[in-house]
Amino acid sequence: MEQYLIHNHLGYPILSVLLCLPLAGAVVTLFLRGDTVLKTWGLLVTVATAAASLPLYSRFDLHTAKYQFAEVYQWFPFLKLEYAVGVDGISVLLVLLTTFVMPLCILCSWSYIQERFKEFIFVILVMEASMIGVFICLNTVLFYIFWEAMLIPMYLLIAVWGGPRKDYASIKFFLYTLLGSVFLLVAIISLYVKTGTFAIPELMTHRFGYAYQMWLFLACALAFAIKIPMFPLHTWLPAAHVEAPTAGSVILASILLKMGGYGFLRFCLPMAPAATLTCMPYLLALSIMSIIFGGYLALGQSDIKKLIAYSSVGHMGFVTLGIFLLNVQGIKGAMLQMINHGITTGALFICIGIIYERTHSREIADNSKLGMMMPIYVTFLGIFSLSSFAFPGTNSFVGELLVLLGAFSKYKLVGFLAIPGAVLAAAYMLRLLQKMVWSDSDGHGHHHDGGHGHGDDAGGHHHDLKDLNLREFVTLAFLTVFVFWIGLHPAPVLRIMDTSVGHLVEQLHHGMQHVPAEHHGHHALLHQVGEWFAQVRIFFAS
Amino acid sequence: METIITSKILLTCAIPLVSALLIMASGSRPNLRETWSIAGAGLTFLSVVNVLPHILAGGSYECVLFTLYPGISVKFHLDGLGILFAGTASFLWILAGFYCIGYMRGLNEHAQTRFYVCYAVSVGGAMGAAFAGNLFTLYLFYEIVSIFTYPLVAHHQDAEGYEGARKYIIYLMFTSKAFLLPAMILIYVQCGTLDFCYNGIVNGIFPTETSRWLVTVSYLLCLFGFAKAGIMPLHSWLPSAMVAPTPVSALLHAVVVVKVGVFSTCRVMLSIFGTKLLHDYGLGLFTAYFVSFTIVVASIIALTKTNLKARLAYSTISQLSYIILGVAMLTPNGVTGGLIHIVNHAFSKITLFFAAGAIFVASGKKDINEMGGLGHRMPLTMLAFGIASLSMIGAPPVSGFVTKWFLALATMDLHNTLLLVVLLVSSLLNAGYFVPIFLQSFYGTPPAADAGQTGSLERSPLVMLMVVPLCITSLLSVLFGLYPDLFLRIINLMVGA
Fold it and tell me: Which chain B residue's Cα is nearest to A458?
């Protein structure tokens, strides 16, 4: 284990602090009273966590693929179970994304949440701790604990503060994710039985036999494919998004979905490289279907939140596409796409929350002609919509470009098949933007109605909509900075993941070539299936 | 051949953006707002003039702003081709700036602040495209132009406006996402960079061993990806965009937007693929025949249109293909004829659109059949219209003649009779749809509704604001027909290098 770690040398246990700060904050909320006090406290804790996470960026060693800022303490010695945390170039970005998104979740709930404030702040802070836990832990037991711990607060967020069909949506979310987790648990136990360790870094370098890899891969991939979510396991997502409160949607889109992608990179690829190679064409095909189906379904939605939810399916399709290209550009693109999706889609959900608070409707038709009434809001909506369909100069463009570069340099066919997804993204986002900013295309507009300047009556349904207040402005402006920063100067982000992704790909290719021989026995059938898969892959690649 | 690394050239792209911000800030004070618009235009043109001497001396400017990935950056590089387009567009923006005031106030249009802001940003986007130093930067500004012209096309916010704008954005966004994006990625995968080659027009950036199949696919994707160039069958957004106010049709849909498309196509042909590769793989001649179809068919359609702006739109589609035809012939004469038409067509076509708008504001007429006798009431406008028509037809001494001359020379270089026939037929067709308008306006009988109305329509100050710019552009068309030297020098820098 030691050879994979660089121990924390900051003088204080930074990762444990990140884990405990929100938890301690959550405990304190139980003793606080008054909505404003609670909100302020929540904001304070999340901002403090974000500030505390900054050294992860500034003190990060770019030249190593090892786990940095690591802490290891004995936990259950007889099981060889340790409390081990650490981050590499892949997880550090997701930790930072989490810590920076959480304050915005409090800000966007400031006036949105009307009841049970104490519980709300408590749930949000517990949520933050468990999400950070998933990304920093270095052993499978902790991973599973945090993975499951996250479910309950998320369930509560939807079930308590959700919309009219919250019961249906929260149960569906819970059952789907739980189904995936069961397989993950089986995989974790079997890994321990097989190797006698829970340590993820050790498991990542362990060479398993081919048939075992197949089982392992399928079990893990199912869990992660539900989480990310991948077509055809995506149906829980629109339901959950539509019913969740704004903060819930933001957390779901920005962070929870990323755990699927993170899981693929942490478990499937390094632990089962040969099986990954075998299953690659199928996952690529599913990714492309996610991209196209997600986009196609988004095109037909009349509910703004549903539209963004389906667009997430499409964006996550790009992520899995990048991951399963198994080359550096693809995986880097996928990582960047995950960060970008967190920023852009999170921002879009905040935008929807803002307009929902004003019009109490999520229907596109009820929120049309905003251009004249809410110019600042519309400007932000425009920026994030453009970012969402990968407009050049915005963050998503770089991510999508890298994924497509990876695709075109490996299989041109795959690249071309993903292009309709990019076209669909432009179509549904521009349709949304056109209807919200201008009007329905039935044209109630009027021509030559006189007057200079932009003070004309827009003739919309609402005449009293207020533009953004300072709090909303700050929230969106903060995210806008990242949209353009990553869009024009992605080097600082790419640099961090450089070594780790390079190491992962190297490890992967090594693992693909050296599969230990094993007696097939009752795995013969699976092996046969694997062979058959492999033949299709060869056909596909040619 | 000295390349100066300087951020000075960013100024040309930044001025329109700053003026857009100032316009936005002074939205409630129309006079100040329009002052910013004109000042922005003037300063933009001055900034282009400022860098001209160095370019004429054979130098160039370069500036890298951001790097996204190795070989993909936001990079500006100014050379002859760029300055040709930037100079034309920024100069015409000044005249269009005055014209806009006359038109928008004359018709008492709504949302004028939005109009001026988007107008300025669109021109700024075109400046960015002209200065782009690699394909990514070109793509970036190409898309910015698409987005910011949408509000201009949809300006009237009625059913027709939304429908036109919808078609506009669907065509432009679909082609750029579906064709241009994969083309860019394919080129990057082959070449490892997207930077243009500024070392003459013969060699592009493709390594010698690139497969013919990949080059052909990338090229075709580029050709169809730049739908702003209006090549058939991806042309029909342009007639739809005519629902926009006329200053938009004039500056943007005759000069800025469509020229961004054509400019990008030429740039990619000359600085990414290079004439040698296009010639070796037979892509040049293929393109020439392909756009010949557009030249002839668009002219035939123009004959059938009686709405003046619609006829001008189809004429534009036809004329844009001249530019690509010239470059696609891949000979020095052809490239010269093609590139100089960027300027010639701009000055002549903006005159025609300005005239159409002035007629509409002064008399409310859109249809050609109603324009009988109008020449007597708007003599200056119709005379300028006549001069610009001559340029379109390619008659000496107006600037269009220079284009046709070089294009004809190129067809003879190639010994290609078919292309020469295309040129002649299209000139006849041009005459067929422009001359009757001019003749009717002077010799035709006024429609019954106008009976008894006499007196000049060009007296009111707002109409004068529109008539003066169009007179200037038509006179300049003649001037450039007589003295095309400056532009020929600039083009020679590129072609001769």
Answer: B157
Q: What is the DSSP letter of A521?
A: G
Give the alpha-carbon dihedral of A146, A150, A152, A156, to 10 degrees: 160
**One-letter amino acid for residue A536 of the chain:** V
Q: What residue type is assigned to position B426 of the chain? A: S
Question: pLDDT of B6-28, one tens digit each?
Answer: 888 888 889 999 999 998 888 78
Three-state SS letters, A60-91: CCCCCCCEEEEEEEEEEHHHCEEEEEEECCCH
Name the residue facing B185 among A405, A427, A441 (closest C-beta): A405
Q: State the distance between the two ends of chain B, measured CA to CA, in whole angstroms.
A: 10
Residues in chain A closer than 8 A to B167 (CB atoms)? none
| pLDDT score of A519 | 45
Widest CA span in chain B = 74
By Cβ distance, the residue of B28, B143, B186 closest to A453 is B28
CB A261 within 8 A of CB A316: yes
List Cα–Cα distances, A501 to A89, A269, A343, A397, A404, in angstroms.
Answer: 8, 11, 21, 20, 17
Taking residue B108's Cβ as centre, other Cβ atoms within 10 Å add up to: 12
Quick one: chain A helix, strand, coil %, rounded to 5? Answer: 75, 5, 20
Q: Give tens-digit pLDDT for B313-372.
A: 999 999 999 999 999 998 889 999 999 999 999 999 999 998 988 888 888 888 888 888
Q: What is the pLDDT of residue A369?
A: 79
Separation CA B470–CA B92 (nearest Å): 10
Residue A144: both structure tokens together: 């599973």
Q: Best-predicted range by mean pLDDT among B204-208, B288-292, B366-370? A: B288-292
Token pair for residue A319?
């992520």
Q: Name the residue among A420, A445, A450 with its Cβ closest to that of B157.
A: A445
Q: Residue length, chain B?
A: 497
Torsion of CA B451, B454, B456, B459, to 10 degrees: -100
> What percentage of chain B carries pLDDT values higher than 70?
99
Residue pLDDT, tens place only, A19-75: 999 999 999 988 888 888 888 999 999 999 999 999 989 888 888 888 989 888 888
Provide the CA B484 distance to its chain's centre, in angstroms.
18
B42 — pLDDT class (breaks 50, 70, 90): very high
- CA nearest neighbour of B249 among B374, B351, B399: B351
| Distance of residue B436 Cα from the nearest chain A Cα, in angstroms | 32
pLDDT in tens, A76-116: 888 778 888 999 989 999 999 999 999 999 998 888 888 88
Torsion sign, CA atoms A173, A179, A185, A188: negative
At B206, phi and psi to the nearest 5? -70, 135
Phi-psi domain of A196 (left: phi exceeds 0; alpha: psi -120 through 50; beta: other): left
Tokens linked to B459: 């007296």
Print burial letters for A101-136: b (CB count within 10 Å at least 16), e (below 16).
Answer: bbbbbbbbbbebbeeebbbbbbbbbbbbbbbbbbbb
Alpha-carbon span A211 to A384, nearest angstrom: 45
Residues of B in contact with A427 (CB under 8 A): 170, 173-174
Compute how many other C-beta atoms are within 10 angstroms of the C-beta atom of residue B76. Answer: 26
Q: Distance between CA atoms of A199 and A67, rounded to whole angstroms? A: 12
Selected residue of B157, B175, B215 to mutate for chain A interface (largest A Cβ count, 10 A) = B157
Query: Are B152 and B20 in contact, with CB atoms under 8 Å apart?
Result: no
Let me know how long chain A is: 542
Strand order in the sheet with B3-5: B3-5, B60-69, B72-78
Q: Place A165 in a pLDDT band, splitting at 50, 70 and 90.
A: confident
- DSSP reduced 3-state for B158: coil
Comparing CA positions, the residue from A108, A35, A157 lying closest to residue A357 is A108
